Amino acid sequence: MSRAPELFGKEKTPVSLVEKLISSEAFTSLYHEGMGLVEEAAAYLDGDGREEAKLLSRDTSLAYSAESMRLTTRLMQIASWLLLQRAVHQGEMTRHQSAAGRHRVRLQQQELASSSEIFKRLPDRLRELSLDSLRLQARIILMDQLLYAEREISEKVEPPISPVLLQLARLRDAFSE
Question: 102: Cβ–Cβ under 8 A, 6 or more apart, which residues?
């Protein structure tokens, strides 16, 4: 019975730059930025935003409602993704589990709910929060695509075996028996 020679001693996998990024201070900063934006939006929409909405015309008030719902949905997707990545980073779940259907957060690019003409009439703070959330969403979607695409590629493609390493492994196996 022929046994495949061990090429590397212990299993070695390529270093994932995206995984390194997720486990770095950069992710911690992104996490705090995202969760801070969620808190800011919630405080605004429950406080000053309510008062400002009462002063708007009917058309602008409808746009305010649509924009605030879109903002809330966008931020909940962002918060869910950040919490999932933090759970992986802290060892509460594996990257494989986070990619599974029931855990995976499906991020979708969302645009503004209003035309630019109507958006300009919305309160300044709502516009700022909406634009900040769109920028954050774009960064997170890119990171998500890199993270999970890299994982899918590494699972499908096996690295080529070096003929030199193969010969060295055979020699090691021959002399160690």
Answer: none
Q: Running DSSP on this structure, what letter comes out for residue 158?
A: P
Q: pTM here? A: 0.70
Q: 10: how many CB neighbours lie within 10 A of its CB?
A: 5
Q: Scanning the structure block, which residue is given the tokens 């995976």? A: 104
Instruction: Write down the residue that tokens 């096996």 correspond to.
Output: 158
Question: What digits encode the pLDDT tens for the residues 117-172?
Answer: 999 999 999 999 999 999 999 999 988 888 777 555 444 445 566 777 777 777 77
Q: How far apart are CA 166 and CA 148, in angstroms?
A: 31
Q: Give whole-number Cα distances, 35 to 6, 8, 31, 41, 176, in Å.
A: 46, 42, 6, 10, 56
Crossing angle of helices 25-46/58-89, nearest 10°?
150
Please list, residue by residue across 128-165, b when 16 or more beta carbons sit within 10 angstroms of its beta carbon and e when fewer do: ebbebbbebbeebbebbebbeeebeeeeeeeeeeeeee
- What are the CA-CA distances from residue 56 to residues 45, 51, 63, 70, 171 (Å)? 14, 9, 10, 18, 80
Which ranges in 90-123 belong to alpha helices (H)?
A: 95-99, 116-119
